[in-house]
Design a protein that fits this description.
The structure holds two protein chains of two kinds.
Chain A: H1 5-14, E1 22-25, H2 28-38, E2 42-46, E3 59-62, H3 65-75, E4 79-80, E5 83-84, E6 88-92, E7 98-107, E8 112-118, H4 125-131, E9 136-141, H5 149-158, H6 163-182, E10 185-195, E11 201-203, E12 207-210, H7 222-226, H8 232-239, E13 243-246, E14 251-255, H9 258-270, E15 277-280, H10 287-298, E16 305-312, H11 317-330, E17 337-343, H12 346-355, E18 363-365, H13 369-380
Parallel strand pairs in A: 14-16, 16-17, 17-18
Antiparallel strand pairs in A: 1-6, 2-3, 2-6, 4-5, 7-8, 7-10, 8-9, 10-11, 10-12, 13-15
Helix pairs in contact in A: 2-3, 5-6, 8-10, 10-11, 11-12
Chain B: E1 10-14, H1 19-31, E2 34-39, E3 47-48, E4 51-54, H2 57-64, E5 68-71, H3 75-87, E6 92-95, H4 102-115, E7 120-122, E8 128-131, E9 135-138, E10 154-159, H5 162-174, E11 178-184, H6 195-204, E12 210-216, H7 221-232, E13 237-242, H8 266-275, E14 279-281, H9 284-297
Parallel strand pairs in B: 1-2, 1-5, 2-4, 5-6, 6-7, 10-11, 10-12, 12-13, 13-14
Antiparallel strand pairs in B: 3-4, 8-9, 8-11
Helix pairs in contact in B: 3-4, 5-9, 6-7, 7-8
The chains are: A alpha+beta, B alpha/beta.
Chain lengths: 385, 298
Amino acid sequence: MDLFEYQGKQYFARYDIPVSPGGVADTVDEAVVQADGAGYPVVIKAQVQVGGRGKAGGIKLANNAEEAREHAGKILGMDIKGHVVKRVWVENASDIAEEYYASFTLDRSAKKHLLMLSKEGGVEIEAVAETNPDAILLRHVDPVDGITREWAHQAAVDAKFPQQAIVGVADILVKLYRCYTEGDCDLAEINPLILKPTGEIHALDAKVSLDNNAAFRHPEWDEYRATEELDEREQLAREKDLQYIGLDGSVGIIANGAGLAMSTLDVVNQVGGAAANFLDIGGGANADVMAAALEVINYDKNVKSIFVNIFGGITRGEEVAKGIVEALNRVKLRAPIVIRLDGTNADEGRQILTSAGIPASVLRSMPTMLEAARAAVAIANGNGN
Amino acid sequence: MAIFVDQNTKVIVQGLTGGQGRYHGLRNRDYGTQVVGGVTPGKGGQDVEGIPVFNSVAEAVAATGADASFIAVPPKAASAAILEAAAAGIRFVVCITEGIPAQDEALVYNTLLRRYPNTRLLGPNCPGIISPGKCNIGITAGEIAALPSESGPNVGIVSRSGTLTYQALYELKQRGIGVSTCVGIGGDPVPGTNFIDCLREFQADPETHAMILIGEIGGSAEEEAAEFITSNVTKPMSAYIAGVTAPAGKKMGHAGAIVSGGKGTAKGKMDALAGAGVRIGLNPTEAGDLMAEIVAAL
């Protein structure tokens, strides 16, 4: 889950990483109140999860209440690359002497944490990596050891930070690492990390991505979930606890396992169709989950056929079949189902579907993934019979 | 021969008294796997259909001589369970648990590496391992795996995806091709065992004559495997990579499956593997067809 900048800053603040005083606002009046509270001059920043908001006019400096009102009015409701700004962050404007970059993430290849540190901050780090790779210090951290203040100090020295910034940067690195590990981040990035003329080090932006698997030990994440930007289909899937990603095609997809679901998308594509979604009902899905999945798919008006592709391991065929029968009793599906059922208890599952007496216009069973994909695509493309 | 596990492997199930542990543990035993015990703290002395339950892995190992463990416990308890097994001297740990935080996985992986180098972890979030006819640890339905033939040729399977692992087994069974061992390494960001670990064993295993690799988008494990294959693998291979049509920036279910910054694409992986001499199928069935051609030519 990706956080908005203001949430990232609030998250940083939990780990004592210094951020500018400020607050969020959903209306122009609120923005002025926040600006008055933060102290002028203020920066008003659009809260959208897309890069390039500065260029698009989504970040403005205001020297007084009048200017704050004018800028907030323009930014709220602005469309930045398809993201409508519903909220702004208003903070006291910082004087900047220098701009740096710092982040922690997991290096999957090395299976260790990775610090990226550069005194060339304030621009896209990918751009720095391309034009001036030597300006980025990459240093692995063994999770067993973690980092010490001395280690962080050395990193800042090795990244050739100026003398007056080293102690402050080292302090932030220790805090950022704690935020990244204890805070269960996939990514904790500060860009820019600034040096003020007064010598203090300070996070001027926050990019935080949280590991959804760790939600069980972070009750404080609930408020972030409430603001996640999901389309209506994704919202419904979330409520039903399903792994769903909305796409633009007309073949609804339900599969068990991420790999099989991805493969199902691929095969549908290969036989001339397009998937309406990615939906992984996961391992051990029961009848309830299957019924919920069909309901989510059914909500999508573009869906012309539904391809249920199940290879049972933990998931048992008879549970899948029961779920389908139950869903058919509960909701009127807008499109016919093509099912391919294999693996654990597949025979029992097929038996349940047969004895339920469902007409072929509503459900048909195919022996292989490829044949089922062809049948589902034929229906979606209007030549299924 | 087979890799990692065979008819002599003695398995305990951590979480045998729970729903998943019981269901799959008993299925593994029915398959013929030597399931010699279970571990659930506080339930020592009980039994599950004749399988004795112990309070700790150490007690279970002392009483049964187990050398492998099957972990089927919730995400919160999984890290501790893995480390407990390693500390008790278990050689091969299979963890099917889905949803373990990445921070925990990274910590467990590196702890094993440094403190318990003789313990191999398979998973987490994996379907397990099956050496057909000998040993099945995990959630694979044993009947979909073709037995290896004594005269060969037999195929080894290594896969990052659970259900696609079954699909690969099934494709081979349909074509009457024997399987030496099938390893599901799991789709999480920090798998305990990777493609290269398995390919090295398959290359050395006299009963394995060819390999199928099933990958997916995200990370660089397939590219690294391709490099390894170029210089270390002489047995013929086919491969399939899931996620050709996956949009960038969207996690496809697995924590590991995401295309970001133009990296980790299916095409990049297919090109890397093809460059290493691996024959690439565009869907699992095609990878099976290619393997049938490879096996016929052996």
